Amino acid sequence: MAExxxxxxxxxxxxxxxxxxxxxxSVYFGWKMFRPFFSAVAIAAILDIVFYPxxxxxxxxxxxxxxxxxxxxxxxxxxVVILPLIGMGILFxxxxxxxxxxxxxxxxxxxxxxxxxxxxxxxxEGWIQDHAPWLDVQVLNxxxxxxxxxxxxxxxxxxxxxxxxxxxLGAIGTFAVVLFSLFFILLxxxxxxxxxxxxxxxxxxxxxxxxxxxxxxxxSSVMGSGLVAIVQGILGGLSFWIVGxxxxxxxxxxxxxxxxxxxxxxxxxxxxxxxxxxxxRAGAGAFILIWGVAIISSxxxxxxxxxxxxxxxxxxxxxxxxxxxxIKFAGLLxxxxxxxxxxxxxxxxxxxxxxxxxxxxxxxxxxx
Length: 368
Known about the structure:
The protein is built from 14 helices and no strands. It is mostly helical.
């Protein structure tokens, strides 16, 4: 019996190594197979966190019929999220193509020259010479810089619109996968989460902290950044529509630029207001600038105060880098991924400090 034990241990070790190798190979090919659907499933998981309270209420209202509740929840997502996005996408694409045609005609007809001949450029240059005499306004070429900036902003809107038009069919297919995944995540997501947590070697308190952090970050990103983007996009688009500019197009672009820390939507409405002033439309330009400062920028603080309660506290500088890095790494979903990774790092470092760096509690002296 004693002689056979090493062989048994060797067989057991070999079996475990084989099992781990087979698992690694299976996970690799599984990742390759499911990778095209990862973004859609991630969006469905985010929607599950946001709309799960509705699903829970509907389940109770329907007497525990979970499939019916999940179906109605998916229908609500279609009506509240998907259809408005498709409608906005169609209007966005139309206005982008119209803008492209208008910019092409204006460039060919010399329409930009009116900005270069604006009478108050001399006033601006004189102010610079009085307050910054070390700057050579001729070398600086403010007119050329501003015109180039306007052309780049216009080019950004056009390229954004044409890309949206070319990806419209793909987006509809992605929406279908999102809705299909959302239905089953609502039904089985909790059971799957329990199965995953059962394999995580953490105690109950640590699991609860990680789970709560995950949910809070997702809600903060979606309910905070998402709602801020929607509100600022609507407010910005409304102001542009009032002054006769393509509201849906630039409102949609401002919704995306609102995710850029520090600058946000000002990267759109500030140049637009200045351009209107330089074109002689003083009222429209002043309206855009005042509306941007007083209404669009203020909406950020108001919406976050109403929508986000009890978020995980992240340092603003680290949050800035996490959002920018997340967008660069994963596109729009990086708005959620970046802060989520940062929050997980912060949480796990807290566990590490607690387990390995903090001294153990003193022994009870009364035991002796």
